[in-house]
Amino acid sequence: MALGPGSCPDLASLREHIGDCQRCSLAASRNTLVFGTGDPRARLMFIGEAPGKNEDLTGLPFVGAAGKLLDELLVSIGIDRSQVYIANMVKCRPPGNRDPEPLELEACSPFLARQIELIDPVVIATLGRFSTHYVLQNTAPISAVHGRLFRIGGRRVVPIFHPASALYDGSKRGVLAEDFRKLRAVIDRVESGEDHGGPGTSVASGPLAGASSDEAPRAEAGSLGITIEQVEPASADADEGAPAAEQQSLF
Ligand code: URA
Fold this sequence. Notes:
Layout: H1 11-18, E1 37-38, E2 44-48, H2 53-58, H3 65-76, E3 85-88, H4 102-119, E4 123-127, H5 129-136, H6 142-145, E5 149-152, E6 155-160, H7 163-168, H8 172-191, E7 227-229, H9 234-238
Bound molecules: uracil.
The site of uracil has 12 residues, from helix 3.
């Protein structure tokens, strides 16, 4: 029996396992499979939707206009792209940049799941509805969940509008900037030790259950077992003067 992605001990062997993938119909039209890029030990991971034209040509995620905006948003919260890991829900470009279809998401998600397990990020920022639905395991509208903090397993998850949305609708730019400030606040709270787990953990197994097994098991909240915590942007400012010396540093 062929071994699955779960048996790959590192990202390089996972990439090798995926090979010249023909597992879904996207293989027919793609130029280059876009595996993901960044620090393999990143504490912050971004998950987008699917490669576009530039990504399909270069093999790198978020290198087009949406990627430029993502870079700017990262810089605005003091993070460089090299410090994070960036992947997508599907690794091949859907023709004409259409939405990925259920069978394509299903074929590709085991590889993303293994990437999450191997990278083991403390914080995941989902960009857009596809990765948000996958990680939160629900179908909540992105407009209802963006900029909020979810805890899943030992991981913090912050859904954010896809940067491409601000390219089509300039009014989203400010919302994106605000969501990145909230993401920074989440990171700061982890770094300062203020957020060391907190209440409300849910998914007990699988890639989305984080490695922070030091957290005590907790009662599940709601049928999905997900606890929602609104992150106050003010906490970003409140932390500004905090001493950094003995803080666990993500960045
Ligand atoms: N949009 C995405 O979701 N991913 C990319 O890699 C590029 C654009």
